[in-house]
């Protein structure tokens, strides 16, 4: 029961982050599909609650791996040379920061990091939607392109 309450709270946090991002960026074409993506996240959240048990705590050995991995992604994302930084390295850094905060008992910080994960994911979804829209336009104008079954 506590796990379900935790998942519901996390979904609420993601929804709030999405609502704030949408309110801030709704006039920008890039974020025009944010509502649709938040609906997708909520649908997947319900499925995840049903499908997956709430994860158990990490061991001390896991904590060391998290520390090393977090340092790796921070090094990539904070370096002067941004050539290795991608949306995925940013997301992974946020995920590992959330795990580290949870391990250290800093639960509010953990929630803040998870909200940042949600914001990065929403931005990634909007970027991918932009690619799909561009492919649809190319199809509309008669170019032979594949949208992975999107049409």
What does this 3D model show about the protein?
This protein is mainly α and 151 residues long. The protein has helices spanning 2-25, 34-51, 60-78, 87-103, 107-140. The chain has one domain (2-140). The mean pLDDT is 77.
List keywords for this structure.
151 residues, mainly alpha, globular
How would you summarize the topology of this molecule?
Elements: H1 2-25, H2 34-51, H3 60-78, H4 87-103, H5 107-140
Helix pairs in contact: 1-2, 1-5, 3-4, 4-5
Q: What summary fits the major beta sheet?
A: none
The assigned structural class equals mainly alpha
Count structural domains: 1
Query: What is the arithmetic mean of pLDDT?
Result: 77
Structure summary:
This protein has one domain (2-140).
């Amino acid at each position: 029961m506590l796990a379900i309450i935790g998942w519901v709270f996390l979904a609420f946090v993601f929804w709030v982050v999405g609502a704030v991002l949408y309110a801030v960026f709704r006039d920008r074409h890039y974020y025009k599909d944010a509502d649709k993506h938040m609906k997708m996240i909520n649908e997947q959240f319900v499925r995840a609650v049903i499908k997956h048990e709430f994860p158990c705590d990490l061991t001390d050995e896991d904590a060391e791996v998290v520390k090393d991995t977090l340092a790796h992604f921070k090094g990539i994302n904070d370096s002067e040379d941004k050539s290795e930084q991608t949306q995925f390295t940013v997301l992974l850094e946020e995920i590992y920061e959330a795990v580290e905060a949870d391990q250290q008992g800093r639960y509010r910080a953990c929630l803040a990091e998870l909200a940042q994960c949600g914001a990065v994911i929403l931005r990634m979804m909007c970027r991918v939607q932009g690619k799909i829209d561009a492919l649809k336009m190319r199809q509309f104008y008669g170019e032979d392109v594949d949208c992975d079954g999107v049409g």
